[in-house]
Design a protein that fits this description.
With 745 residues, the protein is α/β, with parallel strands linked by helices. It is built from 19 helices and 27 strands. Residues 36-140 form the Polyphosphate kinase N-terminal domain. Belongs to the polyphosphate kinase 1 (PPK1) family.
Amino acid sequence: MDTGKRVAKSEKKKKPGSKTASRKALIDRPLPEDRFLNRELSWLAFNQRVLAQAADGSLPILERAKFLAITSSNLDEFMMVRVGGLKILHQRNPTQRDPAGLVAVEQLQAVAKKGHEIVSRQYQLLRQEVQPKLESAGIAQIDLTQASEAEHGSATARFWRDVFPVLSPQAVSSDSFPLLQGLGLHLFIRLKRDPDTRLGKASDGPESGEAEGSAETSEYALIPMGRSLQRVLPISGDKRHGYVLLESLAAHFVDEFFPGREVLECVPFRLTRNADIEFREDAASDLLGGMEEILENRRYARPVRLEYGASASEEAVEFLQKVHHLHPEDLYAIDGPIDLSFLFTLHGEEGFDHLRDEVWPAKPHPRIDPEESMFTTIAAGDVLMVHPYDRFDSVVRLIEEAAADPDVLAIKQVLYRTSKNSPVVAALERAAERGKYVTAIVELKARFDEARNIEWAKEMERAGVQVIYGIHGLKTHAKVCIIVRREPQGIVRYMHFGTGNYNEATAKLYSDISLLTCDEVLGHDATNFFNAITGASQPRALEELAAAPTTMRRRFLDLIEEETQRSLQGGRGQITAKLNALVDPEVIDTLYRASRAGVKIRLNVRGQCCLRPGVKNLSDSIEVISIIDRFLEHARIFCFHQDGDEKLLIGSADWMTRNLDRRVELLVPVADRKCCDRLKEVLETYFQDNTNCWKMMPDGEYRQPDRGDEPPLRSQRVLYDRVVNTWKKAESSRRATFRPISAGS
């Protein structure tokens, strides 16, 4: 018996060693060629998860309508940027393969197939579920061919009063077709040929657009809907909130634009143009002027998609396809209103609160006392906020206090995207006008925010702000504000580091992290980082911060490799990360290596993920989830176990090549124990979600786990309730405390 026990003990001792040996053997094996998923298809899979919210019958109907609008605007941007970029790649380098092994034309074909599936599902949901439920609730789109007398009278009055005086038709032909602005709605009108007027007559021959075998040639015209008229037009009548879309109203009365002519067809359509236009900074003497030129060029770049009413004739479709040089897969027949973004307007209609989500008002952070200076609060210890549950107002308040504080000497800030009437920008202008040294890095190359940023840059310069237009060849995407303050003990730097933009509007919709600190080392690092950008100099070595494109990639790879080595040596390796996208091949391969070594890896990736989780002998220990809920998950949080001495970091960068190599980004360690505990609590909550969580399969598909008998747990609701409960306790404590008012307070 004793001998047997000794043998058993001996075998138990050998197991860890043999396991380590097998891991070391596995880690040296070549990685399979099919280990990456295609980035574009992964993005479309994300949009399908968003679309699933529109199909969720448990959500209020206006929220479902909003998610239809979101998927529509998401798809617009995807077509402009990703499809536009693929078409350029196909022209320039048709044999170049992506990490998944696909050339551009193969990606375009796969994207078109999936894109058509998404559009078909969007309009199926709109017709069969969303519109009928909205109509039952009193929000109805009026069909003017079946309208009541009162509704038709209201529509007629609106047309003659508001629409007819503004819109103008334009005769067109295949050899004289105007350049149309991207994403603008138009009506395409086919008229019976009039030999006397020859209005917009198509040229004879193969380019005429004439349908083969037709007895006579049609004549064509356009009516642009423009941008000055609102698209959703209220119509009084039988419905509580009846409305008609501008293009439907104009189409119903289209004969009025062509007196004496016979209108054969009236088709709504919309072009999407390529927005992936390259700006050659090396050839531009003026960045500001160059970006203004890019904005102008984008309006008339090559079309990449044509959406048109599904009832359009073959002749109309063929004509529009030919004049815009589009391939068949670029054509989208739409059985419903083109461009579902009008549903955002319906979502915002007053008087229908019962059809929307319950409001979750953000709460003040319990550490932030409204009667105490922000500088006093931060000096007492780091403050970590989780937005939109904790108010973003505190960040704005810090900058506004800095603008007014006579002891503040300087404010340095990066602005990537801001709101329309930004209080942050206004505060920086006031600070400069009061003689403070204010420097703002305004990223002019922030896609689709270029025009707004150009205006802010000019306005701040007029106020005396030193404005830097980003970095040559890179986008400045870091989120940092440094406030330099003179205090009795000397100069103190107060900082805000974030994962989101300085935009108080999107801060109510995006889930992000803010860290407020006056840590001396971080302050020194942040100043060196900022000066390197503004001074176009080689950045000095940073002690705690890591910056892209210089040190961040190496920092991440080293942190992953450290967990790998701990696991190979018999320790516990663990990585938990939350980010928006995982695309970079080197990072993915390093994670595969870590998984082969036995590191437990949990990834919460909102959007694109090109890594395959759960593949035997490759990624057995990797789990990937995605949370899609009422707030857009935008925070980047990283936790490395380090044998129990956990290292937590927040940052502005995703694990994408563009973030790590072609953008200026920041990675910030969080040292304060309470702040770290809260970050870990946030990370863990997402992995407990069984309501709005999607789990990624090895083939790239996503499934919602069956929770069985488990009670429902919705991570965003849990995070909000925790903030509310903590705030209530803090408020109760404040009310129970006597606070004398001293002289001069």
